[in-house]
Amino acid sequence: MKLTNVNFLAKANAKINKNEKGIKIVSALLVISITLISAFSITVTKAVNEYKEDYRARTLQVDPIFGPLDENTVNKIRNTEHVESIFPLKGIRNDSFSVTQTSNQEFQNRIDDKGDAHIDIWSLLGDEKRSVIAGKTLDESPVLSCVVPSDFYPFEVENENKKPDYIDGEGLIGETITVKAYNDDLIQDYNMGGDFVSTSTLNLPAIEYKLKVVGTYYLSPTETGYYDSIYISEETATKILDDALTKGGYSKDNKTTVSKWWNDLSLRTHYVVVDDFENIESVYNALTNMNVCCADDSELGIQDSIVNASNIFSFASVFLIISTVLLSVIMIIQSTANALSLRKSDIGLLKAIGYKNSQIFACLYCEQLRVTFTGFAVGTIISIIVTAVSNFFFANRNFIDRLYIINWGTFGILLAISFLIVTIVPLICQLIALRKLNKIQPKDAMNE
Q: Which residues lie closer than 8 Å to 425 by C-beta, 6 or more apart?
């Protein structure tokens, strides 16, 4: 049988198929579920996983409020289940700085125009790493180096719902940024290890530092507000604190409480790194039971709406895919069964004039494909339009909303998967009905 004849019969039979409209609708829903809903699910889940893998999302702050964090206490914490490591804070960890000058002319023009540029400086801690997408890491760079985010914006955000005019972090590599502690004060809390009363605040003099940008890191959309964060090494962070203490008139002679705090790491804040984000609560409870003053949340927070969106999209995609596949199988099997029953005489006639079972099978399969492919086309058009509009909308909003931007490569893979499903499901359904097709004989052409 020629392909044109197969197509002609399939087209004619598809028009009288009672389940044609239902199969088209289910096929369209299947494509939308796999491409649109699943793409959103993958996009948001990826962002949430990136957040959970961040060093700061697994780090709890421990302070010597109830007593010094001496070697014995630190070892107990280190041996606690799910604790990966613990490190004392030798320098600054996270402080606000003003950018007073930069060697990058475009950046300097922006500073001159807006008046103020503020950044959060984060120091690496212990074995903490910060990978870069361009340039060098802090591990391979000298002291007073820094890495900036891929999308950098050290200015006040005027409209929280609109995408700021980000500075390309990669374009700053090789440039210098001159910084000084915000409001000319480097504020540090210190505790002598006894109680909350012994906690004091040091207002240290601000020193101007020229930091060289050596690399740029990928900024995950889940990191709300961190488009103004830069990273320095632990060595640089220690230098900043030590210089400020020295300029403030302090020394390491142990004659003052500050000098004792400066000398004794057991009086410093420590950071506990948990092996997995999901175990944060477990470690917090364990340390609290040990009478250790521990923060009840990790350093890096995440919006509840993002986690909820991830869970909703994940559930919705799985539920809709399973539901639509099952509905497709049921409806196509029913359609095939009806075709064999209602067209028994037609099939018998085809066999009587010389058509083989394989040729008739091809006609029935082609008939189902015409229907499912129509639904596939409709679902594809809807998914592409919604994705394009959604991507355009979120691309022009603030950074946190940009995590909902769907990658077209991912979309294409999911579209290919949905194409395979709408192709294979009818084939499987036809194979299930093959035995019944084989039983139809030429004599059945006389049966009405």
A: 325, 328, 329, 332, 372
| Interatomic CA distance for residues 237 and 242, integer angstroms | 9
User: What's the one-letter identity of residue 42?
Assistant: I
How far apart CA 329 and CA 78 sit, in angstroms, is 55
**Nearest-5° Cα angle at 284, 280 to 290:** 150
Tokens 């500075």 found at: 167
Residue 73, exposed/middle/buried by CB under 10 A (0-12, 13-18, 19+)? buried
* Contact status, residue 418 vs residue 51, Cβ threshold 8 Å: no
Residue 230 and residue 94: Cα distance in Å, rounded?
10
| Helix or strand run (H / E) with residue 332 | helix 304-342
| Cα distance between the two ends of the chain | 25
Cα gap 328→313, rounded to integer Å: 22
pTM for the predicted model, two decimal places: 0.74
Q: Would you list the DSSP string of 88-148?
A: E--S-SEEEEEEEEES-HHHHHHHHHHS--EEEEEE--TT-----SEE--GGGS-SSEEEE
**Cα–Cα distance between 230 and 207 in angstroms, integer?**
18
Residues 232-275 have pLDDT tens digits of 999 999 999 999 999 988 888 877 888 888 888 998 999 999 99
Write out the two tokens for 239: 């230098």
Tracing tokens 């959103």 back to the chain, one arrives at: 40
Q: State pLDDT tens for residues 161-216.
A: 777 888 999 999 999 999 999 888 888 877 765 554 466 788 889 999 999 999 99
Q: Scanning the structure block, which residue is given the tokens 């440039």? A: 175
Tokens at residue 167, please?
Answer: 């500075």
